[in-house]
Amino acid sequence: MRRGFLVLLAVLLLVGSVVTGETVIKMVFWPGPEAEAMQEVVSYYNEYISPRSGIKVEMVLFGREGFFEKQATILAGRSPEVDLIFTTSYIIHQHAPYFEPLDPYFDNPRLVGTGEMETFIPSVRESFTIDGKLYGVPTDASITTLLYRKDLVERIMNDPAWTAKYKELAQSVLGKELEPKPADEWNWDDFYVTTLFLSKEHNPESPTTYGTALQAKAMWPNGKVWSAIMRSMGGSWFDEMGNPTFNTPEALAALQLYADIMRAEAAPPGSVMYEYTEPNEAMKTESAAMIFQWGVAYTELSNPDASPAIWDKVAIAPYPAGEGGHRVWLTSMGVGLSRWSRNKEAAFEWLAFLSTPKAMRIYGSYGGVPPVTAVLEDLGEVSPIFAHVKEYLEKYAFNYVAGTETVDVLRVLATAISEVTALTISPEAALRNVQRELYYLGF
Amino acid sequence: MISRTKEKLLLLSPILIFFFGLMIFPTIYGWYLSLNRVFLHTFEFPVFIGLTNFMSVIRDPRFHSALAFTARFAIITTIAQLAIGMGLAVLFNRDIPGKRIFTSLLLLPMMVSPALIGVMYRLLLNEFIGPLSYYTGLNLLGMRYVVGTIMVIDILQWSPFAFLILYAALQTIPKSYYEAASIEGASRWQSFLYVTLPSIRAFIIMVLVLRGIDAFKTFDMINVLTAGGPGTATTTVSIYIYKMAFQTGNIGRATAASLLLLIIFSVPLAFALKRARKEEAE
Amino acid sequence: MRRRSIKRTVLLYVVIIAIVAVFNLPIINAVLTSFKSNIDISSSPPKWIFRPTLTQYNNVLFAYGYNFRLYFMNSVIISSMTSLVVLALGIPAAYGIARYRSRVNPLGLLLGLRLVPIFVFIIPVFILFTRMGLVDTRTSLVMMNTVISVPLGIFLLVGFIQEIPSSIDEAARIDGASVFTILTRIILPLSLPGIAAVVCLTFIFTWSEYLMSLILSFTRAVPITVGASFFITAWEVRWGEISAAITLSVVPVFIFVFFVQDYLVRAFTGGALKG
Q1: pLDDT of A367-385, one tens digit each?
Q2: Chain C neighbors of B124, CB-CB under 8 A
Q3: Looking at residue C249, which CATH number applies to its domain?
Q4: What CATH number corresponds to the domain at position B200?
Q5: For a 10 Å CB count at each end of chain A, is N or C smaller?
Q6: 3-state SS string over chain B?
């Protein structure tokens, strides 16, 4: 019985692979809006360019659960099953040993066509370069931003009663004068007082229950959202010697902010289990007035069908400015060429097409955020998000990488953040643990 | 006529060949990895370091706390599942019109994978759109309740499994036993204590072994809901190993940790199994 | 007297329904959510009365690039094949263990394997299947599910075979029957209820297997559990669609269990079903 099944399967597989004469390139991609945008590029390629190139592109979508684990298994297991692997600026160091350096391919005029790496914003291109070698084509730039209710922030500025009350609150909390300001001119004091002001606990008139909602689940991606706060306050992951610097006053201030907000009941107590989704729901249900969130959420929160209560009231700003100025964390996303691919040149021809303004324009028109200046400028007229992204990318974007250990550093940070947010440990003690654990890991 | 030993070997050969063919390579590879310094990104170039990985795991305080938490989690949930399963079995062990449909409904939770159950509870416990937190007004995933919450979720999902075994067990007790007990003037409680329980001892051990093992391995439901947090408050050994393997990327040490687990538990497991078989044989 | 017994019956039903509802809370919620529009899902307070919509089901069943019917068929095939393979390997082994006493008990070792978190061995297993060209095939998933299910299967089958008086096969043996004949002509028919029970249990456990299939299947061999998890996208959980997928995956096993529950109950009694 089992043998029969095996034979049947083998026959099916054989038939399936013989029928098509084209080279099929399989590309793993990040499930969600980025994949929907990429699907349009893939469809365009398969319709208009495949007849010439003889190459068909097939997108392989995995769910987010176990996504990187699956890719790591494919790479470590040397599977030729897929040709192109999704990669990001924080994980590319782990992928690079299994990726083909792309420079020789870009230097090969026979393959490259009109594609060129110069299309992409230099900082984004840099994040895919290791030891001078390029390991991936970046197709998307994702940044953390402050998404906020502009109606409420404006009312604090324009409604005399609210303004007076705001000043009073500032005086009692910080012991100093504070003028209401627009969100993109905020420093961290402005943010903190506004957060309290828009919480019922401190201002019964507040239309929102909480000023903000924090992403503090013990999952490593949350380390990025917080690291941008630390950077804005003037902190850093490492000093010039590469030693971890989480024992600095800046790091402490950034973690203290989470603790203060939680203790002041200005964020939902459930924040300690939030990842990307929950803060959006806090905004949609008018429970929270502003959130630190990935820019991609703006599209959903400003969509009348998805967010009927707030779609016309939500606006975008960079993180407030501390000692380190406004800051946003940049994650570059893209694809790399697997060393185990059996169709490397064909796969590269598709990558070359991806590196054209044409492809990136299609990608941007369908909801992606291509890191290409000219394309972002053009699209800025279609959706305001692109104009902001371009500005933030040029002025505020940064990220940290710790080589192959980036994800692990983020894991350590996320553990500390969730502990502090749960108010079970002081920020000082949590950061001491972080330092100790990073030394233990060999930093 | 071939000898009995040979016959036994013949009978066991299909499964042995299957396991040997499929698992020998992964098993040897696993042991090999555990003796090497090897990361996800250096998978091609392992460096032999002897028992260092085992020593690091044994010395890691996070491993100890994960082990302690897992033991607590496994013991509490297994006992609760046994008790609830028993209660349900007694409740269902009578003529109820429509019992089939209720039994099927009761068994339903164990047919959904724990990961998806976790996702559905994430929605139920969502502070803004989840009914459970809306009506209780409690933050059930907050520090105060989170351990209790995940235990309750595990209990709700797997008590039906205990129920299934124990309900079956109750069917094996001849009615005459109870009749004898009632002639002797035993109360219901007494006949449960002195007739029911001793008769189904083997099944109770079966529940404890099967559920105990699986509870000790619990991974996806907790990982989906809490990712082992806040801090490391709900980190089971499986989550510890998972993070070690795929976030720290230290495959060698993760493999060592799981082999260590296997060694630690093979002794009590072997004992429990031997007992279960003996009970059943009686 | 009559009134009292009616009252008791009503009370019993209320209790049972309440219990069943509590246990199935996540599934009830999945069913409700699957009929809501996205706006109703993300509304606070939670809506109990809403205009039901089939949008989510439409997305699950017909959306571009999401092949739910394939995932469903994969689950059906993988679960049935696993049940058969477990029997093929398990019956002889169980007979061997039940009838030939020896000091070495492979059962403990097999059950011990259940303790190991599967993902630790997933890379070596993946390498093996890559070499065999079996990555992303149903065959590989059947094999791994067999590894997961066969220990419990043997454990239960041993119980059933021990119930069969050994005098029966001793008699056959004296008549000159081979082991194979004894197995197929005597043991197999006599332990049929046990076999049915093991099939049911294996089917259910394979149907809900997730972790290992998640790594070993890409597109062609994806089972329904992994397919449902595709709605956990990079950024958000698409509650409506994942609820619909979960609902669709639960209905068939529910019907299955409804019809086979007598065998399921028997799984653990080692054949000793008495009235």
Answers
A1: 889 999 999 998 888 777 8
A2: 25-26, 29
A3: 1.10.3720.10
A4: 1.10.3720.10
A5: N
A6: CCCHHHHHHHHHHHHHHHHHHHHHHHHHHHHHHHCEECEHHHCCCCEECCCHHHHHHHHCHHHHHHHHHHHHHHHHHHHHHHHHHHHHHHHHCCCCCCHHHHHHHHHHHHHCCHHHHHHHHHHHCCCCCCHHHHHHCCCCCCCCCHHHHHHHHHHHHHHHHHHHHHHHHHHCCCHHHHHHHHHCCCCHHHHHHHHHHHHCHHHHHHHHHHHHHHHHHCCHHHHHHHCCCCCCCCCCHHHHHHHHHHCCCEHHHHHHHHHHHHHHHHHHHHHHHHHHHHHHHC
